[in-house]
Amino acid sequence: MLIKHPTDFKPSEITDESAYLNRRQFLAGSVAASAALTLPAVTAAADGGGERRVLQHVGPAGHNQPTPEWLKQPLAQTAPGPFSTQEDVTPYEYVTQYNNFYEFGTAKGDPAENARDFVTEPWTVTVSGEAENTGKFLLEDLIKPHQLEERIYRLRCVEAWSMVVPWIGFPLAKLLNHFKPNSQAKFVRFVTVYDPKQMPDQRSPFRAIDYPYVEGLRMDEAMNELSFMAVGLYGRVIPPQNGAPMRLVVPWKYGFKSIKSIARIEFLRTQPNTTWEKANAREYGFYANVNPTVDHPRWSQASERRLPSSLFSPNRRDTLMFNGYAAQVAHLYSKMDLSRYY
Ligand SMILES: Nc1nc2c(c(=O)[nH]1)N[C@H]1C(S)=C(S)[C@@H](COP(=O)(O)O)O[C@H]1N2
Ligand SMILES: [Mo]
User: Fold this and answer.
1) The domain defined by 11-333 carries CATH number 3.90.420.10
2) CA nearest 75: which of 121, 140, 2?
3) Closest ligand 1 atom, CA of 213?
4) Where does the pLDDT of residue 54 fall: very low under 50, low under 70, confident under 90, or very high at 90 and above?
5) How big is the chain by its Cα radius of gyration, in Å?
6) Rounded CA gap, 143 and 147, in Å?
């Protein structure tokens, strides 16, 4: 399938693979870098002309997640997708070592450490509710029909930091249409796997939040062209700490809406109750649209730290309405008071 609106790449702003690897070599020494160099580059047919080009961002194989056999071919055929930002991408080390994935621990470095051997193959997704085609599906059967795309999106956490991530995946709408939701389906609910044997915080008596982690979208939000299911990043299979084997990416909403390691999808008539709302409804709303004019009760949302960020180089910038995606999503909320439906 051809992508109708490929991104207009501005080559001058692209950190290409070789520049990236040089940086790795500098940072990590030659061992990691030479291992990465032996891996085949991910190439993709560009729109029209059959021209092949290397994806913008390919990271090192710096995690233990093996690429499932069935995913190798789709990953190798990833094409540049629409809506990618031309801002600098956040370095691989930050994307994969500064994470929120409470099931594996609440410190930013915990998920990379504790999810190292997370087994996600085989994986099933159970689909229920207001749809025609419900049941238990093997992940590979849900993914194989789709052309994978690279989309470089901003990710803005409610904690007021942000990143730019080169995701690989496909539009959420394509996945949901596969299940043929009926006219009663007004919301969709997503549930992370519940697997206390593998997820230390799920078996902890001091668990940080309720498990399994639950998120939800209004049906028109889910069907919006920006809503994305990611199965890869930086040119490779998605690492466990980022939500293997499949996680949601909703770039105009705070990061907590982008639920990881999805095991269940349910089509509902009414709005689901979500994990962070249950934890604290005053601080975390169902909509959770990025909005610099509605502060979190305990901090301002007017600006953010773009990673990498440090004390001496904070890299602070203004937060944009809908995280800069107003052109694609503002119409979804035209009749709503966003200070009430935060
Ligand atoms: N299951 C699950 N999904 C989750 C979370 C979590 O703790 N558990 N954290 C969320 C939050 S708060 C953010 S900011 C993003 C972070 O995604 P990243 O680690 O890939 O950057 O994942 C979201 N998805
Ligand atoms: Mo977050």
Assistant:
1) yes
2) 140
3) 1
4) low
5) 19
6) 9
